[in-house]
Amino acid sequence: MPSRPLPLRLALSFLLALVTTLALAPAARAAPQDLDRIIVVVNDGVILQSELDQSMDDARLQISKRGLTSPPDAALRAQVLERLILTRVQTQRAAQAGIRIDDRELNEVLTSIAKQNGLSLAAFADVVRSEGLDYLNLREQIRDEVTLQRLRNREVDSRVVVTEQDVDAFLASEGANSDKEYRLSHILIAVPDGASQQVRDQARAKIADLLKRIRAGEDFAQLAIANSNGQQALQGGDLDWRKGGDLPSAFASAAGKLKVGETSEVFETGSGYHLIKLADMRGGDERKTVTETHARHILIQTNAIRDDEQARAQARELYNRLQAGEDFAKLAKEHSDDPGSKNSGGDLGFQPPGVFVPEFQSRLDQLKPNEISPPFRTQFGWHIAQLLERRDRDVTEEQKRARARTAIGTRKAAEEYDIWLRRLRNEAYVEYRVPADAEAAAQLQ
Fold first, then answer.
1. How far apart (Å, rounded) are the C-alpha atoms in residues 400 and 155?
2. What is the pLDDT of residues 342-371, one digit of tens each?
3. pLDDT grade for 394, boundaries at 50, 70 and 90
4. CA angle 422-423-425, nearest 5°?
5. Cβ distance 245 to 179 under 8 Å?
6. What domains does the chain contain, in order, with CATH numbers?
7. What span, in angstroms and rounded, lies between the C-alpha atoms of 65 and 133?
8. Among 246, 233, 156, 148, CA closest to 188
9. Quick check: 353 and 361 in contact, CB under 8 A?
């Protein structure tokens, strides 16, 4: 879950997005109706007609909320069904790996979303229902999402390694562009692993035709909904705001050549053929500085023979001796209970904001250079602090490297996830019980 509160509309958009990308767990369904039937067998599991119908309704709702028009039912059915299959093979894999999200943990996730929006869980459920969603079904979708994220962390993200050489190469190739943010829309025409040249040529021809239609004035988002194999197809291909450094390298390269509103030429990656449209762009490279504080302190803690009042009294005595002119470093070496700084006379070195606990930092912020504070208490005990100096330091390069490291990790993980998911899908036994679904799936792929 995000660490910062989400606006309620954003949280609901997140939940709406889950509707068309996650399979609905059978346990959350109402009892099957007489006309319910199996439409796809996925390994040792099934997808029911009722599941597809519910997901189709949810997809139409989401598309409508984006101000878009749903594609013909056959195209939408193929898109939704493929996403149900992808989710099912992943949840099956998670079950094999022993990954399970119980009701207690699921309630904690939902409560966190509600709390971030200033709501109780019951009130949040009411808001979700007011958006036209089935709350019980949505609970199971979120359970799936948390399960799949945990599976991805274990089988993909945890194996990604970023080296210093990766960071150097990233900064050399992308520079300031990595700090720009792009709002992209995306169309993918996937090419299966080991596909024949004929299949590749057909995929290339299909996306070339889509580009021609876009250049002729057709809506990118509508074409994405009906044709794209991308994970965000049913959101009109909208990838939302992403920093250049967080995009796959081929996307970042293509986006850097576009003006707002333009669509790229067709480009190829291991997953297939792509088009991206630059909807908007913002930000760029800025210098970053932080104010660092150089201080030293004496810490007096309670122990088996010294209670809190006695610790306070000793700190007061040492403060009086400092005021009388005794040497700070000497008293720190003799009396401080901080093992990390006492041998250096209490010296804490230069530290940026956020290193010290708030109470300690607040006291330092009130001091002038060389001024000594009266004794004050934090969770660690009683302190006497002296501010030695402050300095402003340019941390632009450090932050660039840190962001680059994160971006590379995100990029590598996304690429590995695509490969892993395609392999999982290709290895799965999928039997379509409705011939039209098999034909639509073949066209979508």
1. 28
2. 999 999 999 998 899 999 999 999 999 999
3. confident
4. 65
5. yes
6. 8-155 (1.10.4030.10), 161-286+398-444 (3.10.50.40), 290-393 (3.10.50.40)
7. 13
8. 233
9. yes
